[in-house]
């Protein structure tokens, strides 16, 4: 594991930081600001690469002491088994405390209704908001990145939410220098995005540099998939495939990890981190464009979900 | 042609440049940004298709690249940008974070926000119009925020027959004006964003220009100045105390170095208490190091067990800032509710937040012509003015000119947490000393 700052070649300045060191330092600063100013912070942890990266940065920020935050997983019930296994192993390894907010329990209790398309991503907002209220979390770390999606491009690092978790893009506080204003009233909370300024390629390069382990579904493997709206979805209990959809075995990997019903795999031969990085550098599609059915619903799909309190 | 493998390999050793663009749609800013992203292959197919779709729906023939980040419903419906958009792109030499600031709505607030973290600002001028009021405003914001590098992009050179005298006259006028405000480095580049001249590729139409293209300049401009010449500053964010069986006595002060360089063995002063100690060790996110510098996030350990907590500042014993309860500063007011004389506020400075009261608002500044308006009584959204603030507890405050990170602060409404104003301690501009004192005779006609 390399943690020593790499001094850039081709510059006369011995104090220049590499872009990964700059991004790492910025994220660590954000984690420490939250630890210094909030009472009950929580990290949203799905077992996806962005949340794994967040946890890694938090571990580094407070070493040799433990991470002073708990974790929260909003579980859609449509999980990849490899990812759940990874989640539980990671929690045990670092002695962390994990809360799970279960979409399935809300459906079983009649508090949420399954959508006709079987997608559960939009259903996560209510369990997430109620978990935040129930545990009185005042700062909620999310792995959102501004390069992911255009509504997210306008998101602050510290994003104030009302008691319904709602986001109002026109009432955002201007964010200047590295001064993050986390003042909030009782019942309100702040969503915090420490990796706002990272791109998909940065995330992968940093994962490689730090030797961070990821769930295997991020690497090319044989999988039974079927095609829906131009995406390869995994056949499974969640409700796919439908009658007219045919299952085939393909070599694929996942660029993002979310609800199985709307997260698509991409054709890939990339079995190593190096190969994944090369593939991403050459990709002509964004990761959400390639893999997220829920963002394709409308031009403002993400903005609408964010306003309602989504991640 | 760079292969993806080369790009990935080279990116592992690149630096990061944060820059801001200022200018309006009429100056061709969207076209310039669009070309930088497009020609550096940072716009991906699905993004471009989405933009083409949306443009067609709105009856536009060519894809409107502003739609790439005008992502909010209100922005698309009104065809305006309402907020700073951050865009990301990379070349094999550098990674870029671009703060793209809208030119019309809330322009001062947004430009100040974008410039606050920028190491370089691109100011756009239409070659046909030259330096106009707006250009002077942009130069003033860059000067006020102490952006180290300013690029003047003289755009639409194709519409003035690529004539050197047109460019030279504009460059000379702008450089003189910006230099008079104390902008340390100005690079003027003749471009045509629409035709692509000197944006990414060198122009075939302007043989007389021997300087870099916009992208070449962005790739090569130094990202940080000589840190050893800076006052070293370390605001303490958090105290790390594992209190475990293996580490019963570990006590580390976590923070991000705000300026300068720190070394093991260096005598330091902790402010505001004034207690002194020596740096016993520096932990750089898991590795023990002898030296660390801005903007690294580190943990400092001291030789003495003295009282240090969040909000304190660690500085070299022979170069520590004065502590003060009286702050004189320039502020940009960013909230809808006004800032008034006598108002009780919170001041957030580095990692310290204390109560304060606005004692005086001696003047308001008009950015277009730098005229001073004495005793305005209040500042409203997008105003820039001088303030005098008395704090309840002492702050270890530097002049913003010496240290952007430890000379800046926010004023916050204690009732609802609104960010009211962004403040910069000390003199407004480096070079125009007369602008500091309100003119009391011939400026009066301004009201």
Features:
heterodimer; A: 311 residues; six-stranded mixed β-sheet; disordered N terminus; B: 447 residues; Rossmann fold; Elongation Factor Tu (Ef-tu), domain 3; 3 domains; eight-stranded antiparallel β-sheet; 8 helices; 25 strands
Structural topology:
The complex is a heterodimer of chains A (311) and B (447).
Chain A: H1 19-37, E1 41-44, H2 49-62, E2 70-75, H3 81-93, E3 98-102, H4 103-108, H5 125-135, E4 139-141, E5 158-161, E6 189-192, H6 200-210, E7 221-228, E8 231-234, E9 247-254, E10 265-267, H7 273-282, H8 287-291, H9 301-307
Parallel strand pairs in A: 1-2, 1-4, 2-3, 4-6
Antiparallel strand pairs in A: 5-6, 7-8, 7-9, 9-10
Helix pairs in contact in A: 1-2, 6-7
Chain B: H1 4-11, E1 15-22, H2 29-39, H3 45-57, H4 73-78, E2 85-90, E3 94-100, H5 107-116, E4 120-126, H6 133-144, E5 149-155, H7 164-180, E6 185-190, H8 214-220, E7 234-235, E8 238-240, E9 252-256, E10 261-263, E11 267-271, E12 275-284, E13 287-289, E14 291-293, E15 297-302, E16 313-316, E17 323-333, E18 339-340, E19 344-349, E20 352-366, E21 371-374, E22 378-379, E23 384-396, E24 408-412, E25 419-425
Explain this structure.
The complex is a heterodimer of chains A (311) and B (447). In chain A, strand 1, helix 2 (49-62) and strand 2 form a beta-alpha-beta unit. The radius of gyration of chain A is 19 Å and the shape is globular. Chain A is an alpha/beta fold. In chain A, helix 1 crosses helix 2 (49-62). Chain A folds into 2 domains: 19-201 and 302-307, Rossmann fold (3-Layer(aba) Sandwich), CATH 3.40.50.620; 217-294, no CATH class. The longest helix of chain A has 19 residues, at 19-37. Chain A has 9 helices and 10 strands. Mean pLDDT of chain A is 85; it is low at 1-11. With 447 residues, chain B is an alpha+beta fold. Chain B folds into 3 domains: 4-220, P-loop containing nucleotide triphosphate hydrolases (Rossmann fold, 3-Layer(aba) Sandwich); 228-316, Translation factors (Elongation Factor Tu (Ef-tu), domain 3, Beta Barrel), CATH 2.40.30.10; 323-446, Beta Barrel (Elongation Factor Tu (Ef-tu), domain 3), CATH 2.40.30.10. Helix content of chain B is 19%, strand content 34%. Chain B is globular and about 70 Å long. The model of chain B is unreliable at 433-447 (pLDDT under 50). Chains A and B meet through helix 1, helix 2, helix 6 and helix 7 of A and helix 1, helix 3, helix 4, strand 2 and strand 3 of B.
């Amino acid at each position: 594991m390399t943690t020593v700052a790499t001094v850039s070649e081709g510059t006369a300045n011995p104090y220049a930081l590499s872009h990964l060191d700059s991004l790492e330092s910025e994220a660590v600063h954000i984690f420490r600001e939250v630890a210094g100013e909030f009472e009950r912070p929580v990290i949203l942890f799905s077992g996806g690469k962005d949340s794994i990266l967040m946890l890694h940065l938090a571990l580094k920020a407070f070493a040799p002491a433990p991470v002073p935050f708990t974790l929260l997983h909003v579980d859609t019930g449509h999980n990849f088994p490899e990812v759940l296994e990874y989640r539980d192993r990671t929690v045990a390894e670092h002695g962390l405390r994990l809360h799970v907010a279960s979409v399935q329990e809300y459906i079983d209790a009649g508090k949420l209704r399954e959508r006709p398309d079987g997608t559960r991503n939009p259903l996560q907002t209510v369990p997430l908001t109620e978990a935040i209220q129930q545990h009185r979390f005042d700062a909620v770390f999310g792995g959102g990145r501004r390069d992911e999606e255009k509504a997210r491009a306008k998101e602050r690092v510290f994003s104030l939410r009302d008691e319904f978790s709602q986001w109002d893009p026109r009432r955002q506080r201007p964010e200047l220098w590295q001064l993050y204003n986390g003042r909030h009233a009782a019942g309100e909370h702040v969503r915090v995005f420490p990796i706002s300024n990272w791109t998909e390629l940065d995330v992968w390069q940093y994962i490689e540099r730090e030797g961070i382990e990821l769930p295997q579904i991020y690497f090319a493997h044989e999988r039974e998939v079927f095609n829906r709206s131009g995406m390869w979805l995994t056949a499974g209990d969640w409700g796919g495939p439908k009658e007219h959809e045919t299952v085939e075995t393909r070599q694929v990997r996942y660029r993002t990890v979310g609800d199985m019903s709307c997260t698509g795999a991409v054709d890939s031969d990339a079995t190593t981190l190096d190969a994944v990085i090369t593939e991403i550098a050459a990709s002509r599609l964004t990761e959400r464009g390639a893999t997220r059915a829920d963002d394709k619903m409308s031009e403002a799909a993400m903005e609408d979900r964010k306003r309602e309190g989504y991640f | 042609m760079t292969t993806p493998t080369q790009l990935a390999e080279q990116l592992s050793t690149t630096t990061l440049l944060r820059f801001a663009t200022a200018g309006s749609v009429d100056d061709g800013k969207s076209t310039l940004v669009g070309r930088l992203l497009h020609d550096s292959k940072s716009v991906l197919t699905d993004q471009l298709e989405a933009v083409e779709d949306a443009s067609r729906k709105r009856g536009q023939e060519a894809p409107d690249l502003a739609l790439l980040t005008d992502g909010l419903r209100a922005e698309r419906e009104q065809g305006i940008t309402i907020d700073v958009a951050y865009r990301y792109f990379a070349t094999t030499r550098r990674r870029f974070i671009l703060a793209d600031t809208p030119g019309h709505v809330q322009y001062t607030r947004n430009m100040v926000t974008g410039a606050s973290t920028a190491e370089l600002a691109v100011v756009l001028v239409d070659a046909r119009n030259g330096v106009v009021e707006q250009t002077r405003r942009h130069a003033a914001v860059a000067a006020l925020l102490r952006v180290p590098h300013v690029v003047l992009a003289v755009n639409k050179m194709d519409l003035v027959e690529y004539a050197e005298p047109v460019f030279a006259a504009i460059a000379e006028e702008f450089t003189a004006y910006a230099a008079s405000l104390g902008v340390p480095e100005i690079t003027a580049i003749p471009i045509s964003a629409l035709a692509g001249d000197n944006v990414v590729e060198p122009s075939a139409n302007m043989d007389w220009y021997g300087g870099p293209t916009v992208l070449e300049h962005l790739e090569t401009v130094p990202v940080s100045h000589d840190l050893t010449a800076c006052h070293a500053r370390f605001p303490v964010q958090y105290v790390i105390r594992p209190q475990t069986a293996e580490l019963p006595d570990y006590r580390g002060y976590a923070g991000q170095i705000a300026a300068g360089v720190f070394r093991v063995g260096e005598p330091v002063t902790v402010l505001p208490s004034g207690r002194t100690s020596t740096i016993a060790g520096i932990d750089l996110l898991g590795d023990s190091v002898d030296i660390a510098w801005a903007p690294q996030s580190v943990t400092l350990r001291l030789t003495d067990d003295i009282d240090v907590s969040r909000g304190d500042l660690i500085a070299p014993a022979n170069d520590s800032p004065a502590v003060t309860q009286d702050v004189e500063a320039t502020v940009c007011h960013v909230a809808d509710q006004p800032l008034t004389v006598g108002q009780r506020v919170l001041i957030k400075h580095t990692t310290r937040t204390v109560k304060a009261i606005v004692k005086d608002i001696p003047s308001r500044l008009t950015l277009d012509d730098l005229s001073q308006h004495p005793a305005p009584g209040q500042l409203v959204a997008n105003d820039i003015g001088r303030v005098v603030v008395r704090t309840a507890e002492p702050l270890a405050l530097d002049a913003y000119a010496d240290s952007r990170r430890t000379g800046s602060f926010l004023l916050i409404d204690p009732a609802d947490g609104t960010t009211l104003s962004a403040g910069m301690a000390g003199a407004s501009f480096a070079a125009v000393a007369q602008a500091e004192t309100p003119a009391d005779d011939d400026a009066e006609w301004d009201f």
